[in-house]
Amino acid sequence: MSYINPIVLLNIHSLYLQKDFYSLNIIGFTKPIWDKRESRREASKILLRKVLIAPAMMFSLLIGMLAIEGQSQEDLHHGLQYHSTSGVNNDATLIEDKPIAKLSLDQFELQGNNGATIEGDISYGTDKSKLSAEVDYERSNGETEENELWGIYSHSVSANWNILAGIRHDFYLENTSRNWFAIGIIGETPYSFEMDAVFFLGRSGSTALRIEGVYTFKLSEKFSLAPRAEFDFFGQNDRSADGGSGLSEIEIGIRLRYELHPKFSPYIGIHQYRNIGKTADFEREEGEKVYDTVWVLGFRAWL
Length: 303
Fold this sequence. Notes:
Layout: H1 6-17, H2 40-77, H3 79-85, H4 90-97, E1 100-111, E2 115-125, E3 129-140, E4 143-156, E5 161-171, E6 177-189, E7 193-201, E8 207-215, E9 217-218, E10 223-234, E11 246-258, E12 264-275, H5 277-285, E13 291-302
Helix pairs in contact: 1-2, 3-4
């Protein structure tokens, strides 16, 4: 990753300003000195240029510093590869590039409405690319609300972001099922905000979109609070999936976790779902609730 050195930017601005100033301080405001032969109009232009260039210089410095920070993170992420290619430690790359298998449970919880949620995956691959099988199961009021099985290939495009493509298979209560082609992006922004956005293409041109975000902030060394939100959209009315066009469903919640072990964290929280628009109309026609708020108790773990 290449970046612009802010010192170079400062020097460029300095050279440019030296046409009109004898000296330059860090914010660019020094007394203008012009040739007596120049008109007052030229003097005004010089003053205007000074006022405009000073903020530009500071903005350039800021961009340069941000670029350096981004470069540092990239160097840290690829540090093992750098040292390996430099001949320092050839075993490092072998360790980093060696495929590994991993089991993750993001949510394994019981809910207060005779419900449960299981979200997890089994993956095999490297930090650069991997294959995974994922399950997303939700049960509410004694009935299965969501039952999805995913087959996904993901590939890293930066230190924090991956693109993914694969198949999502939905199981329905009426012994029917549906397949979706899925493509999207998943990753983590600064300050521990994780998000993913996945677009789905189904039979007969049906489309859907799911956006999910989780923000985790530490309360102490062991305790953390994790607000979570999920938004589901359909491109058209879909009675078989009880989905109405547009924004279909919103799920929000917050969970208080305790890190009992680096690989195991029990939690307690509150969760709410709400059907929107046509989806809510479909649920009302079938005598179903369109929103609910429940307490949850569960854990997250990985192996």
